[in-house]
Amino acid sequence: MQQPQVTIVGSSNVDITALMNRLPSPGETVLADSYQLTSGGKGANQALAAALAGARTEFIGAVGRDLNAQIALEQLDAAGVVLERVARVEANTGVAIIQVDAAAENCIAVVSGANAGVDAKAVRDAGALHGILVLQGEIPASGIAAAIDAAEERVVLNLAPVIELQRQYLLAANPLVANEHEAALILAQLDGAQHPIDEPEETIAAKLLAHGIASVVITLGANGCLVAEGDQVQQLPAVKVAAVDTTGAGDAFTGALAARLAAGDGLEQAAEFAGKFAAMSVQGHGAQASYPRSLDTI
Ligand code: ADP
Fold first, then answer.
1. Considering its fold, how many domains does the chain have in total?
2. Is the distance from the beta carbon of residue 220 to the nearest atom of ligand 1 less than 6 Å?
3. Lesser CB count within 10 Å: N end or C end of the chain?
4. For a substitution probing ligand 1, which of 246, 260, 272 has the most ligand atoms within 8 Å of its CB?
5. Residue 63 falls within a domain, yes or no?
């Protein structure tokens, strides 16, 4: 049988994380204890997860011609993600400059850099998008729209962060993957109404389906996820683990979900696997570094 195929069009970053006792106030300098330089970006995180979950995975995005380009892509390269169509452009590789204090409070500045150039033209120039297509909200809306127009198979849309997208593109998601906050914002885009933060996730999921989205997965952190399809909304519990760092858990979930859908699983089965994969990731520090390199224990 052919290996399941996933194509991810999205962002890749270098995360520069400084660890310090307390965050500086405006105008202030504080001495940090240490820093880490790691690869990130939601697109790249999801590509790594899809590859580690067993799919032949291609990543389509853009990096600069700077030293960070190599760091941004090295984990993907090591996991066998196809990187031939990652554009090298005259901009900086995207960076997230992160400050974290002793109480794990953070302060983050994201410089999109090359990711801002993954627009409609760049996506069209990249050519055919094979297999299950996975998209996030860290590239321009025009790039997301062009990718959906070119999709060959179902589209997994993880619109995080939530950006404005034309209705027809929101409705193309199958599934839409979002956490509870994002799901409420996406619903607000579709119906123009504000949704109270305490509106039950089941109601939000049902309303998203009623607008015409074929399927929806709402992730609920340690409470697992909701899988909604047809007229069914079902909650899948999370695997009980001792979480140390949930950074990138949603990306682990989305990438693994896409890999299993590409392998032929139904949505519920794929979400169950994705929950186990993401539960492994929360037991390690960081995003990409915490993704399981072996599926033996899943
Ligand atoms: P996001 O980071 O995008 O907000 P979530 O926090 O909802 O995403 O996490 C995504 C998925 O990761 C969850 O649906 C769940 O399967 C898994 N997960 C997250 N936190 C935990 C946890 N503490 N224990 C077990 N699984 C978790």
1. 1
2. yes
3. N
4. 246
5. yes
